[in-house]
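Figure 2 data, in text form.
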Amino acid sequence: MSKYIVQGQTGDWEVVIGLEVHAQVTSKSKLFSGAATEFGAEPNSQVSLVDAAMPGMLPVPNAECIRQAVRTGMAIEAEIHKWSRFDRKNYFYADLPQGYQISQLYHPIVGEGQLVIDADDKGGIPEDKVIGIERIHVEQDAGKLMHDQHPTMSYVDLNRSGVALMEIVSKPDMTSPAEAGAYVRKLRSILRYVGSCDGNMEEGSMRADVNVSVRKVGDPELGTRTETKNVNSVRFVMQVIEYEANRQVDVLESGGSVDQETRLFDVATGTTRTMRSKEDAHDYRYFPDPDLLPVVLEDDFLTECRASLPELPDAKRARYEGELGLTAYNARELTAEVETFARFETLLGVVAAKIGKPEAKVATQVANWTLSVAPGVVKGLGDEANLANSTPEAQAAILSMQDKGEISGSQAKEIYEIVLKEGGEPEAIADAKGLKQVSDTGAIEAAIDEILANNEDKVEQYKGGKDKLFGFFVGQTMKAMQGKANPGVVNQILKDKLG
């Protein structure tokens, strides 16, 4: 287990965590109107009469938003409800023109599912763990209050009003900040694989409400929970949990009681503060929305949704390990982000074709290049790197020369640097800059003969059992050849001459 334990004066406390993740559905228009959903538009420039709650305006469900919610449910192995219904959640706030939010309380479109978070020794998660998902329901987003536009007034931007959200509600199965962080990362990865949400937490298209409670270790009863709203990064989710767990333990151990309340996270201080008392469902006077018919899903629609799903992270990782022979670490890193596996798979196909080997034979080389070598060169160049020059064909040419033994690993990096800064064909760069390895056995043998002749004492020591001196001879040979000798050829000739 990876429980987060808070040590108090009266004993040890454990934390119980549940997350409500709000993910903006990938759609060009809103849930019940044709208004655009593009991020960063001028305030109130993407507001229809429906979004502004003008009298007589009726909502019309966006079929694409329903489809994306269903596909997301299928990706987490959840129950899909063929019959679901929209409800009105009644509350009054300046950014909610209708005076209610259209949501789903009693009959959500997606029922129970699950998500597996991956073991991470560095993160404190010793083994894979299944996190239950209670439901996914579809609802409207509210607008946005802007408090920094005027010294005495707050302005309202309704561009987000009516944008479709999936609220993905976990069960209280997480027991540490590390598990919660892994859950959000894995969920974000799945949403981006499916294409149902872009996962841009910094833009607000994915954010989490963090529910935290504490109880004495071994106590079966759940404590009173707090809910910290609209946390927009994995790091902040983990900070909220750590702060809230310790704060609640301090309250309880000082003889107080934890209030069931909604809190806000202060990024600057890393603390939470009270926002309002936490309402229960009956406080919102939920009732079926009279303007909307129930949503009824047909079998053909469900079949199309399932057929449209891509290979998901866990299945892709298993294939990378089983079919391509990659290490568990490389497979996990390559499948964590959509962009990473896309770059890897594209480059893998080009390299295999250029070298003329099966993908499994070059997969490790391409994986190391994708995860370590290429990013390291790009980072080292900074603004000098022109990524437009980094085509799969250019990278494949470098890896092909390395596979043939024509260039070394350091030469591959040097050639890639030149490609990124100046462009050009890697083979021509290698020839023009003298960056190819020497595999001429005559030249290498001559250098080795001279080194052995000048180090007769060390030759005798090597033959007498000092095997580590072999590295000395290799180093001296590479130095004599200015680092351009093929290491494989050097090793073989030395072994032959030293017996």
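Caption note: The domain at 441-498 is CATH 1.10.10.410 (Arc Repressor Mutant, subunit A).
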